[in-house]
Write a structure and sequence with these properties.
- The protein starts with 33 loop residues before the first helix and ends with a helix.
- Helix 4 packs antiparallel against helix 6 and helix 6 packs antiparallel against helix 8.
- It has a 5-stranded antiparallel β-sheet. A 3-stranded antiparallel β-sheet has the order 8-10-11. It has a two-stranded antiparallel ribbon with strand order 4-5.
- It is of the alpha+beta class.
- Helices cover 29% and strands 20% of the residues.
- The chain folds into 2 domains: 104 residues, Phosphorylase Kinase, domain 1 (2-Layer Sandwich), CATH 3.30.200.20; 169 residues, Transferase(Phosphotransferase) domain 1 (Transferase(Phosphotransferase), domain 1, Orthogonal Bundle).
- The longest helix is centred in the middle third of the chain and has 20 residues.
- Its EC number is 2.7.11.1.
- Keywords: ATP-binding, Kinase, Nucleotide-binding, Phosphoprotein, Serine/threonine-protein kinase, Transferase.
- It catalyses: L-threonyl-[protein] + ATP = O-phospho-L-threonyl-[protein] + ADP + H(+); L-seryl-[protein] + ATP = O-phospho-L-seryl-[protein] + ADP + H(+).
- InterPro entries: Kinase-like_dom_sf, PIM1/2/3, PIM_Ser/Thr_kinase, Prot_kinase_dom, Protein_kinase_ATP_BS.
């Protein structure tokens, strides 16, 4: 999804505050009319799973994003621990992500509406913000200092999802929001997400962006949550420090032939990217190993 933002400072990232516990959503959909509670103010973005609108809550003027999804395109329901009945998949997964401790790096859902033809999710709206892809292009490339701050937040966001039983399954540069004032990061859009399953996922059902897709999802019967996430993290980091993608097509992804680096990219950064983009899933680092890598210990 494309959400437009503003200026790009070159400063250290500030850690965004997590949402307060009293804002935790109930599993039941809100019965009141959406329009009695919120004033919609135009489209923020569109994706394969829905359209996102900017909205103002009438009681206090607070800004939110409202994701509208047609039911015919979002028919799957799942049962999650703590709830007595099945819930729409994206709703259920976002409820799981709100269980304490809440992550400041993952977009939060505050309430949802269930209507005859559509579902509507009321989501956190960080601002001023833009998607990471636009942030990279408008800044003429990121310094490793900025990339390191963003990457740390993204790894923690993905780790939070896995720890809470949620596999995002579509990590890419348009599903990451950057606050252009604080450099705080939010992982967004759980439309393609799944429950974590140690048995893996059928590759023919992979729904993520192909540019960030691991080779096993293109060639093997199964792919697995953590190695897939780590591969996508490697692609994101490569894009941040180079401004172009590491693979030009699916064949290059299968071969593991990484495009050239900018001459300014450090040896430590290249090493971390290479480890994340290992063609063998079992040889990719864990989230903890990524954060303990020498590149994250660098001073410059």
């Amino acid at each position: 999804m494309t959400i437009y933002g503003q200026n790009v400072p070159d400063t250290n990232p500030a850690v965004p505050e997590p949402a307060s516990v009293q804002d935790l959503p109930n599993c039941e959909p809100t019965k009141e009319s959406l329009y009695s509670l919120y004033e919609l103010q135009g489209v923020l973005g569109r994706g394969s799973f829905g359209t996102v609108y900017k909205a103002i809550r009438k009681t206090d003027g607070r800004q939110f994003a409202i994701k509208r999804m047609c039911k015919w395109n979002n028919t799957r329901s799942i049962q999650i621990p703590g709830y007595s009945k099945p819930l729409p998949r994206e709703v259920a997964l976002m409820l799981m992500l709100r269980r304490p401790p809440v992550s400041p790096y993952v977009i939060q859902m505050y309430e949802w509406f269930d209507r005859r033809m559509v579902m509507l999710l009321v989501l956190e709206f960080p601002h001023p913000c833009m998607v990471l892809r636009k942030f990279i292009s408008t800044s003429s490339g990121l310094t490793e200092l900025i990339a390191r701050g963003l990457m740390r937040q993204l790894v923690l966001a993905v780790q939070h999802c896995i720890d809470h039983g949620v596999f995002h399954n579509d990590i890419h540069a348009d599903n990451i929001l950057v606050n252009t004032r604080t450099l705080g990061l939010k992982l967004i859009d759980f439309g393609a997400a799944h429950l974590v399953n140690s048995a893996g996922y059928d590759s023919w059902r992979y729904l993520g962006a192909v540019e960030f897709c691991p080779p096993e999802a293109l060639s093997a019967p199964k792919y697995y949550a953590v190695p897939t996430n780590v591969w996508s993290l490697g692609v994101v980091l490569y894009l941040m420090v180079n401004r172009w993608l590491p693979f030009s097509n699916s064949m290059q992804t299968l071969e593991g032939s990484i495009n050239s680096f900018k001459s300014t990219v450090s040896t430590e950064c290249r090493d971390l990217i290479g480890r994340c983009l290992n063609r063998i899933p079992e040889k990719r680092p864990t989230f903890t190993q990524i954060l303990q890598h020498q590149w994250f210990q660098s001073e410059n």
